[in-house]
Design a protein that fits this description.
This is FAD-binding protein. The protein is an alpha+beta fold and 462 residues long. The protein is built from 15 helices and 18 strands. The strands form 4 sheets. A 7-stranded antiparallel β-sheet has the order 15-12-14-13-17-18-16. A 5-stranded antiparallel β-sheet has the order 5-6-10-8-9. Strands 1-2-4-3 form a 4-stranded mixed β-sheet.
C-alpha cells in the first residue's frame, strides 16, 4: 500500500489526512515538530533507526487509532515502553513508533495488594508507588527499564527467588490487537493469549496496562562487596557454592565489572536479602566475611532504593551490545572464562556477570506460561558498554568471544530479553529462545496477529 503521509505533513494535517475517527489529541509527531527528537531517545545509543512518525496515545482507544493509521499508511509499527531494548526494538526505520509515554500511571490498591500499571511505566514508577504501602513485586534490576518489555519477555529481578518472574505475578493484561480491538487477557478471559503474554514478548498486540500481584516488602538488606580482579576465580567459586542451596529470599550476582566513578575493575558480589529482617545478618554474613573484600557496602533500605541503586551502572545514552547464556549449573570452564575475560577487558565498562535465579522461578511448572526456561538456575550476562563509536569493534568482539567461550556449557535457547539479536542465525536463535513454547505461540500469533503487524521484537512468525 502506498503511504498517504506526504513529506510536508505536520502534526496538524496528519489528522486531516487520516480522516474521521477518534483523535490522538494532536500527538502525531514528525521530524521538526516539538517532542519528536525527545521521543526518539533510547537507552542504547547504538540504535540509529528513525521513524517517519511518532504516535503518543493517551488512551487504549488512541492506541487502536494509531495502529489503524499505521496500517492504512503501510507503516511498520514499533512499540516504545521504556525504550530499554538492547536490540533497539522500540524504534523503526521509516515507520511509526507508538510511544506509550503518556500511559505511565500506576495505581495501587493496598487492601487487595494489586497494582495497575500503564504500558509506558518504568519499574521505578512501580517500585515507588508500591513501596509507599510497604509492597513490591518482581521487577528489573535496573529501575529505568520499561515494565512492558521486561514483563512480556518473562522478567527477572531481585525478588525472583521469592515471588517468581514479573510475568508470574500478572493477574491480567489490557491489550490492543492488530485490528485495533481492545481486550483483557486473564486466566478467565482469552486464556490462550494470557499464557502467551507471559514470556512470548510483544508479538500479539500493544499492552496498555498490566495488573500485578504485590507482596509485603518494607525493606531489604542489600549491597555489594568488591575484591581485586586477581581473585576473580575465587569469588566466582564462592558464589557457586553459596547459591547451591541458597534460600529463596537471597539473590546474589557475581561478576567482573568497573567501579562506576573511577572505572577501576573489581570482582564483585551483589546481593539482596528480602526475607525476615531478623534473619538478615545471618543470611548475608558469609558474603561479607569472604575475603577480606577491598570494599563493602551493606545496608537495610527500602526495596525501591536498592532497585534503583544499580541505574548508575547502566546509564541512558551509552552504546550497548549484550549476549547471554542460560545455565543449569556452572561448569569450571565457565568460571574460568568469565574470570579471564572479565579481569582483562579492553574497555572500562565491559562486564561479565553470573546472575543467580532459582527459587520460585524454577518451581513454576514448565509450560504453565510461555516462558520456557524454568530449569535455568543461572545466566551469564556479557555486557558490552562504551561511549565512543570508534570502540564498537573492540567491544563487540570482546562480547562475542566471551559468549562463544561460555555458551557451549549452557542450556539450549537464549533468554531473549537479554541479547542483541544480530547475525545470520537470528531466526534460529529466536526460535530456540522460545523453546517448547514455540508451536503454541505460533497458534496464538495466527489468532491475534495473522499479518505479523507486531514484528519489531523477537518475532514469532505466524
Amino acid at each position: 500500500m502506498t503511504s498517504r503521509i506526504s513529506q510536508q505533513s505536520t502534526t496538524t494535517d496528519l489528522d486531516g489526512e487520516i480522516g474521521p475517527g477518534p483523535s490522538l489529541d494532536g500527538r502525531l509527531l514528525r521530524a521538526g515538530t516539538p517532542g519528536f527528537d525527545a521521543a526518539l531517545r533510547l537507552w542504547n545509543s547504538m540504535i540509529k533507526d528513525r521513524p517517519k512518525v511518532v504516535a503518543q496515545p493517551g488512551t487504549s482507544a488512541e492506541v487502536g487509532r494509531a495502529i489503524r493509521i499505521a496500517r492504512e499508511n503501510d507503516l511498520e509499527v514499533s512499540i516504545k515502553g521504556g525504550g530499554h531494548s538492547v536490540a533497539g526494538y522500540a524504534t523503526t526505520d521509516g515507520g511509526m513508533m507508538v510511544d506509550l509515554e503518556r500511559l505511565r500511571g500506576v495505581q495501587v490498591d493496598p487492601a487487595r495488594r494489586l497494582a495497575r500499571v500503564g504500558g509506558g511505566a518504568r519499574w521505578a514508577d512501580v517500585d515507588q508507588a508500591a513501596g509507599a504501602f510497604g509492597l513490591a513485586t518482581t521487577g528489573g534490576v535496573v529501575s529505568t527499564t520499561g515494565v512492558g518489555g521486561l514483563t512480556l519477555g518473562g522478567g527477572v529481578g531481585w525478588l525472583v527467588g521469592k515471588h517468581g518472574l514479573a510475568s508470574d505475578n500478572l493477574r491480567s493484561v489490557d491489550l490492543v490487537t492488530a485490528d485495533g480491538q481492545e481486550l483483557t487477557a486473564s486466566p478467565d478471559s482469552h486464556p490462550d493469549l494470557f499464557w502467551a503474554l507471559r514470556g512470548g514478548g510483544g508479538n500479539f498486540g500493544v499492552a496498555t496496562s498490566f495488573e500485578f500481584d504485590l507482596h509485603p516488602q518494607q525493606t531489604v538488606l542489600a549491597g555489594m562487596v568488591a575484591h581485586p580482579p586477581a581473585r576473580a576465580r575465587e569469588v566466582l567459586e564462592f558464589h557457586r557454592a553459596l547459591t547451591a542451596d541458597a534460600p529463596d529470599e537471597l539473590i546474589v550476582y557475581a561478576g567482573l565489572m568497573a567501579e562506576p566513578e573511577h572505572g577501576t575493575r573489581m570482582a564483585a558480589l551483589a546481593f539482596c536479602w528480602s526475607g525476615d529482617p531478623a534473619e538478615a545478618d545471618a543470611a548475608v554474613r558469609p558474603i561479607l566475611e569472604f575475603g577480606p573484600p577491598v570494599m563493602t557496602m551493606a545496608e537495610t533500605m527500602p526495596y525501591a532504593a536498592w532497585n534503583g541503586g544499580n541505574d548508575i551502572l547502566f546509564p541512558y545514552g551509552r552504546r550497548y551490545y549484550w549476549k547471554a547464556a542460560l545455565m543449569r549449573e556452572l561448569d569450571d570452564r565457565v568460571l574460568e572464562a568469565v574470570a579471564e575475560f572479565g579481569a582483562n577487558a579492553p574497555l572500562p565498562w565491559l562486564n561479565a556477570t553470573i546472575e543467580y535465579y532459582g527459587g520460585a522461578m524454577n518451581r513454576q511448572p514448565a509450560g504453565s506460561t510461555a516462558f520456557p526456561h524454568r530449569d535455568a538456575k543461572y545466566q551469564v550476562v556479557v555486557v558490552g558498554a562504551w561511549d565512543d563509536p570508534r570502540e564498537d569493534e573492540t567491544g563487540i568482539r570482546w562480547v562475542r568471544d566471551l559468549h562463544a567461550a561460555v555458551e557451549p556449557f549452557g542450556k539450549q535457547g537464549d533468554f531473549l530479553n537479554f541479547v542483541a539479536m544480530d547475525g545470520a542465525d537470528r531466526s534460529r536463535r529466536i526460535r530456540e529462545g522460545y523453546g517448547e513454547s514455540w508451536d503454541r505461540l505460533v497458534e496464538v500469533k495466527r489468532r491475534y496477529d495473522p499479518d505479523n503487524v507486531f514484528h519489531r521484537n523477537n518475532t514469532v512468525t505466524p
